[in-house]
Amino acid sequence: MKFLGVVLVGAALLSGCATKAYRAVEQECKPAAFADYPINPVQVVQTRQRVIHVSTGMRNCFTTRDGAHTNTICNDITRPEYIPYQERVVIDQNEAVRNMAIESCAANLCLQRYGNAKCKTDQLWVPVP
């Protein structure tokens, strides 16, 4: 159930720049898409990378003066090094095809109702008399 929540939150974030009408149409399309392509969690191994900072052997120093006192501060100069590692993750095997089905359904409904695939109301077609 937690996985479903993550999927739904992710989908909501991805549709953030859509019009209100488009989001409403998407909500109409989602039940059929989830019925046709239910969540299918599968454990897979993915290669990921972690970054470590490796010293280059050089230093960056600067000196400050405060009256008669002089302070020199030196910092090592580092470069990023990417270390690949394997990690087991759970993915929804049907997510991509389900999202395509939702997008296709929404575009078709928008085209029928608004005359454009994005449900933009500023582009409504008005019949010429």
Molecular structure report:
The protein is an alpha+beta fold. It has helices spanning 2-14, 20-36, 95-114, and strands at residues 41-66, 69-92. The protein has a two-stranded antiparallel ribbon. Helix 2 packs across helix 3 (95-114). It is elongated. The model is unreliable at 6-15 (pLDDT under 50).
Mean model confidence by pLDDT: 86
Structural class: alpha+beta
Coarse shape: elongated
Distance between the termini: 54 Å
- Which strand order spans the largest sheet, edge to edge or round the barrel? 1-2
Helix content: 25-40%
Largest sheet: 2 strands, antiparallel
**In terms of per-residue confidence, which ranges show pLDDT below 50 for 5 or more consecutive residues?**
6-15
SS summary, helix count: 3
Proportion of residues in extended strands: 35-45%
The number of strands is: 2
Helix and strand pattern: HHEEH
Rg to the nearest angstrom?
27 Å
What's the gist of this structure?
By secondary structure, the protein is of the alpha+beta class. Helices cover 39% and strands 39% of the residues.
